[in-house]
Amino acid sequence: MARDIAPFDKRTLRQRCTTHVRDLIIMGGMRPGEHLIETRLAVDLGVSRGTLREALRPLEIEGLLVDDGRGHMLVRDMTAAEIREVFEVRGALETLAATLLAARSDRGDTSDQLRAVLEPLRDETLDFATQIEADLRFHEVLCQLTGNNTLRRAWQQLIGQIEMMIVAAGPLVAANRMRYAEHVVIADAIASGDLASVRQVVGAHMDEFATKYLMDKELTPEPPLAPARAHRASDFDRT
Questions:
Q1: pTM
Q2: How far apart are CA 65 and CA 82, in angstroms?
Q3: CA dist., res. 202 & res. 208, Å (int)
Q4: pLDDT at 145 over 80
Q5: Which homologous superfamily is 80-216 in?
Q6: Residue 219 pLDDT greater than 80, yes or no
Q7: Which of 52, 140, 148, 171 has its CA 20 to 30 A from that of 125?
Q8: What's the confidence (pLDDT) of residue 168?
Q9: Whole-number Å distance between alpha carbons of 27 and 45
Q10: CA nearest 164: which of 94, 92, 68, 60?
């Protein structure tokens, strides 16, 4: 009888390690401010420390990990000043993107595309990681649809910091901020073609959530969650 064969995972060992550590951070298995114990993590993943360090570099570039100045990596813990700065830049970029889209003759089609991207957020049973992905995807597509690659790349440089704000807030708090209703108003404003309305809606969106994430800095952090999934040795098999 024929035996089922698992699909071949084309990702490199390093890429699989990167994905695994990102999952741990996003799902709360590693909390903001926590140091990575490289020796222990390398053993857990069944890889060399050299491979692990290569795997951590993309997460440092993304902004999920930072060097503590003593050669050790820790999960980024956003300061209040950094949160303000990120929302100031996000607000400028996304207001520009939305006004560019609203000024175009195809703004109706564009707003429909944005609503389609938002559809997953209608599902209130989404797991936290998928919810984050869907939320960030909407904002990225908002910038991408302008066709302005400089704008899109500038926004993408903020992804890691935005993720860390959400992770620090925790699923019990942040999940209620990543809803369809809070985002579809941006697509509706673009469809209207009213540039003043677009600026007001995007500005209000950024102001509201900047205030909420700044308030989170005053709250006691939630306890760590279980990792997104248990480590399986086969995930990091060298063969």
A1: 0.76
A2: 15
A3: 10
A4: yes
A5: GntR ligand-binding domain-like (1.20.120.530)
A6: no
A7: 140
A8: 87
A9: 17
A10: 60
